[in-house]
Amino acid sequence: MEAYPPEQHGERNRRRDCIGSWQARYRDPDGRQKQKCFPISEGGKRAAEAFLDEVRTRVRKRTYADPKRGEITLAQWWDLWWPAQPKKAVTTTNRKLSNWRAHIEPKWGRWRLCDLEFIELQKWITTEVKGHHTRKKVLELLSGMLRDAVRDGKRIPFNPAAEVQLEAPPKKDAEDTRPPTREQCALIRQHVGIWYRPLVVFLEETGLRWGEATGLRWAHVDLEAKHLRVKEVLTEDKGRLLRKAAPKSVAGFRTVPLTPEAIEAVQTMAARFKPVDTVSPIGDGREMHPEELVFRGPNGGCLTRHNFRRTWIPAIQAAGLARKVVNEETKRTEWWPRVHDLRHVFATRLKDLGVPEKDVQTVMGHDRGSKVTWLYQHSAEDVAAQVLAVMAPERPAVRMLKAV
Q1: Residue 78 is inside which H or E element, if any?
Q2: Interatomic CA distance for residues 297 and 307, integer angstroms
Q3: Calpha distance 54→157 (Å, rounded)
Q4: pLDDT at 283
Q5: For 139-160, what is each residue's pLDDT tens digit?
Q6: How far apart are CA 276 and CA 218, in angstroms?
Q7: What is the dihedral of CA 86, 88, 92, 94, to 10 degrees?
Q8: Coil, helix or strand at residue 146
Q9: At what angle do helices 132-151 and 118-127 cross, to 10 degrees?
Q10: Strands 240-244 vs 221-222: parallel, antiparallel or unpaired
Q11: What's the pLDDT at 289?
Q12: For residues 331 and 339, is the Cβ–Cβ distance under 8 A?
């Protein structure tokens, strides 16, 4: 440009002389030219040639990934990834949003995808995220995001969270997880207010989940056939009641038999409010339709867990059964027995009566019978005495004679 000034010889493009670093040029699968520079040395030249050989091979095999696609931050990837996720239940969606905002975004939101490393993620999940259940759900969300980043044109070559390990959940003594006996349940019922007593009896006699029982509609009860059908549930999210058109899983759609005690509980509630036998569609503007529900509060509204705790905790305390436990991980206060333990009472009762496991699985609405076995069915309290009676049965006393 100095030898031939533009003002004398006219404008022309600058020439790109190779007088700096070694520049390895190649074209990606879309035909766009890419380049990477290497030091101006013999070693740099060999590195550039090796790089070109590797990249061209990956382009031919269709395994090429543009490194710049992994240079976006995790927060930017969330903005792309989250809207593309399949629609889930409201509670599931809000739980994931909460885990992202409370745990993942503050720590990793500004990190680039390509900079995330296994050991940093492992240290974070072990030392900074509190509570086994929270760790599990947070790791599931983060690992799912990074797994899809690998799938999306290989923004990153591998998922650094795939091998992150969780600590084993805290172990609990069997006495802390054993449900109350039927005698103890009867004692609790004596101290439950007269209004809620039918609900407590119903939960113990049917094994329904809380949302299945409180969402039971009169049209789904057949007293002549002595059964009910579980078709929808009530759920709570951030203190707001929601109506779901389906139970927890496909197996949740089921027919549950009604014992005489359960039938009496249903008839008692029906006599109080005389529910209608219509089934209103979800999303018609009046979500709950309490006039169709079997179990309602004293004022005729839908039952909530929060309100029922005001009755349940004083009842177990008056029965002398309440045990207050502080969770060592979350520092939350937990009470035993829980309302959900009535479901465990029901499953254990079916086991003791000899009901086949497959039938227990069907009645309780589980996909796998094994889950019913290890989660809901509990051994009897006197199992040690029973085993000892089999191993060392009592024998009549034998008089020992001494030799004279």
Answers
A1: helix 74-81
A2: 9
A3: 15
A4: 67
A5: 999 999 999 999 887 788 889 9
A6: 7
A7: 80
A8: helix
A9: 160
A10: unpaired
A11: 87
A12: no
Joined together, the tokens standing for residue 298 give: 């004293």
How far is it, in rounded angstroms, from Cα 22 to Cα 44?
Answer: 7
Angle separating helix axes 305-318 and 182-191, nearest 10 degrees: 110
Token pair, residue 85, equals 């996720």
**Nearest CA among 99, 61, 60 for reference residue 78:** 99
Taking only the tens place, the pLDDT of each residue in 303-313 is 998 889 999 99
Beta bridge partners of 230: 254
Residue type, 111: W
- Spatial contact of 36 and 54, defined as CB atoms under 8 Å apart: no
**For 5, left (φ over 0), alpha (ψ -120 to 50), or beta?**
beta
Amino acid present at 82: W
Cα(124)–Cα(135) distance, rounded to whole angstroms?
10
Helix (H, G, I), strand (E, B) or coil at 211: helix
CA–CA gap between residue 318 and residue 87 (Å, rounded): 45
Task: Output the pTM of the full model.
Answer: 0.71
Is the Cβ–Cβ distance between 75 and 110 less than 8 Å?
yes
Residue ranges for the chain with pLDDT beneath 70: 12-20, 29-30, 62-66, 172-177, 283-287, 327-331, 368-404
| Amino acid 57: pLDDT | 83
DSSP 210-227: HHHHHT-BGGGEETTTTE
Q: Is the dihedral of CA 195, 198, 204, 209 positive or negative?
A: negative
